[in-house]
Amino acid sequence: MNSELYLADLEAKPAALAALAESLETADPFEALPRDIERVLFLGMGSSRYAAGVAALRLRAAGIDAYAEYASAAATFPASRGTLVVPISATGGSRETLDAVARHAGTEAFMAALTNAPGSPIGEPADLVVPLLAGEERGGVACRTFQHTLALLLALEARLTGAGRESGVAALVRRAAEATADLLERRDEWLPTALRLLDGPHGVYAVAPAEHLSSAEQSALMLREGPRRPADACETGDWSHVDVYLTKTLDYRALFFPGSRYDEQAMDWVRERGSTVVAVGADLKGAAATIRYRHDDDADVALLTETLVAELVAATWWSAGS
After folding, report:
1. Which of 29, 61, 210, 220 could be bridged to 233 by S-S, CB 3.0 to 4.6 A?
2. Domain 3-181 - what CATH class?
3. Is there a contact between 309 and 233 (Cβ–Cβ < 8 Å)?
4. For residue 178, which of 304, 277, 4, 87 has the smallest C-alpha distance?
5. On the CB side of 33, how many CA atoms lie within 13 Å of its CA?
6. Which fold has domain 186-320?
7. Cα 235 to chain centroid, rounded
8. What is the number of alpha carbons within 13 Å of residue 260 lying toward its C-beta?
9. Would you write out the chain's pLDDT as a tens digit for each of its 322 residues?
10. Which residues, 6+ apart, have CB-to-CB distance to 207 below 8 Å?
């Protein structure tokens, strides 16, 4: 792992997204899926599972039976005809995911593997391999692959729900590329403030609605993985039941992704106890600072873009050795 190369990986996001959008315009990566899918089972660890959790929630909201499991779980739904198993691994070599894949190999389930390494072991038993097309992450941290995983899972959603052709997802990915470029180009305007406000003695807490929980989870992971800072994630509504207690005893500092009907409920406690919140993508009463970017009023663009804030904070702290 290398902090300078990690920053370079982040700076390459717009170009990588543009290439992904072009690929989606050219062909449907999920065209080979069978038509009789009754259940979708996502398998993954870390960033892959974060993205899968949001994808499964979206599919359930569309009326499709979908679940995101830890690949390390000892038991899950039995593989059967009509089940689409989607193992996700950026490297294609995650031990837990490969073990889960082995349990489903040779069954009647259809397996579509998502990976940034199409020739890796995860693809060997799969009926379909979908490349993430994120390019090599030389910094050793899953950042572009996380973003591309989300984008391709949106393409899978479009395929399964019939909500729109992948060209619609391609247009979304292009807007996300523009949003990402905007945050990168204007980082001198917002990053110093974010660094100052989030730099506390008790770590950083990332808060997001269930529909964007992957953003909070990935943000916290980036702060742990690079600069090795304490960080955790919480769903906005659940925050008032599980994390609110920390605001009474800690110098509580949060990266907050608005969009939940329970934003104000959480912010009531934040204001009462003088905690520090940096809002991303929308104004939030009581926030110490708000970071806006191009197209942030589009919830799907935000889903694909907003983790870049924490990633750049992490890159800066990591490079400084703190």
Report:
1. 220
2. alpha beta
3. no
4. 304
5. 25
6. Rossmann fold (3.40.50)
7. 14
8. 24
9. 799 999 999 999 999 999 999 999 999 999 999 999 999 999 999 999 999 999 999 999 999 999 999 999 998 888 889 999 999 999 999 999 999 999 998 889 999 999 999 999 999 999 999 999 999 999 999 999 999 999 999 999 999 998 755 459 999 999 999 999 999 999 999 999 999 999 999 999 999 999 999 999 999 999 999 999 999 999 999 999 999 999 999 999 999 999 999 999 999 999 999 999 999 999 999 999 999 999 999 999 999 999 999 999 999 999 998 6
10. 216, 233, 234, 235, 236, 239, 243, 254, 255, 256, 257, 266
What CA–CA distance (Å, rounded) separates 77 from 17?
34
The dihedral over CA atoms of 268, 271, 274, 277, expressed in degrees to the nearest 10, equals 90
* AA identity, residue 88: I
Cβ pair 40, 65 in contact under 8 A? yes
d(CA 234, CA 210): 9
The structure tokens 């830890």 sit at: 70
Six token digits for residue 132: 């993430």
Say if residues 289 and 317 touch (Cβ distance below 8 Å).
no
Q: How many residues does the chain have?
A: 322
Alpha carbon of residue 3 to chain centroid: 20
Residue 44 carries which side chain, given as an amino acid letter?
G
Structure tokens at 82: 């009509």
Token duo for residue 201: 């003695």
DSSP one-letter string for 90-110: SSS--HHHHHHHHHHTTSSSE
Domain assignments of the chain as residue spans, ordered by start: 3-181, 186-320
